[in-house]
Design goal:
It holds the Pfam family Peptidase_S15. Helices cover about 35% and strands about 20% of the residues. The protein has about 220 residues and is an alpha/beta fold.
């Protein structure tokens, strides 16, 4: 799990990167929760998703956004954090110019940043959003959403209430060629204290299914 430092738009950013032994392996970028509320790349759910992609053979990175850990700069209200995510993606793509696919996975605030990045990078092929803060941020920018993905909500989450996430999912599912795999963990609150394994199982199930379908579709062309 090598430590990496790479150039961000507001100074150097700190990350952890696993390089797959598979040639042209798919890539995954994992984004942490809100930096002003203790969110770092070592967050338990963020780390669990990182290890899950590693286990599936991906080259995967998690990183600290500006002002977090050893990353330079300071919190920028989400705008600069989107640029940080783009810089992390640029670094991974430079190291892996022939990657077979590209996934983003975000938790809480990281889910918001990840979905913003999705709209800016057409090469992204899949996404995971855990507890996206749909009641606090406007996700109307997902119009149209470029592809389907996995969205996870906690039934007892007061910070990212399930009804607001459900409303977002319903809106996305009305869009052409978009199908959101929506999973609710009834007993989970915002920190998913006892549901990390469930998050990992859902992620691996969704990603594996999508990757198999994509391989079959490419083979049929």
């Amino acid at each position: 799990m090598p430590e990496v430092m790479f150039a961000g738009p507001d100074g150097r950013l700190e990350g952890r990167y696993h390089h797959s032994s598979e040639p042209n392996a798919p890539l995954a970028l994992v984004l942490h929760p809100h930096p002003l509320h203790g969110g770092t790349m070592n967050n338990r759910i963020t780390y669990a998703m990182y290890r899950s992609f590693e286990k599936m053979g991906f080259s995967v990175m998690r990183y600290n956004s500006r002002g977090v850990g050893r990353s330079q700069g300071r919190y920028d209200g989400g705008i600069g954090e989107i640029s940080d995510a783009a810089a992390a993606l640029d670094w991974m793509q430079a190291v892996n110019p022939n990657a077979g696919a590209l996934w983003i996975a975000g938790y809480s605030f990281g889910a918001f940043v990840g979905m913003q990045l999705l709209m800016r990078r057409p090469e992204i092929t899949g996404w995971i959003s855990v507890a996206p803060p749909a009641a606090h941020y406007d996700f109307g920018f997902l119009a149209p959403c470029p592809c389907g993905g996995l969205m996870i909500a906690g039934g007892k989450d007061d910070l990212a209430p399930e009804p607001a996430i459900h409303k977002l999912v319903d809106k996305l599912n009305t869009q052409k060629n978009v199908q959101v795999d929506y999973r609710i963990f009834p007993e989970a609150d915002h920190i998913f204290a006892k549901q990390a394994d469930q998050v990992v199982e859902a992620l691996e199930d969704h990603v594996t299914t999508k990757m198999v379908r994509r391989t079959m579709a490419l083979a049929a062309d």
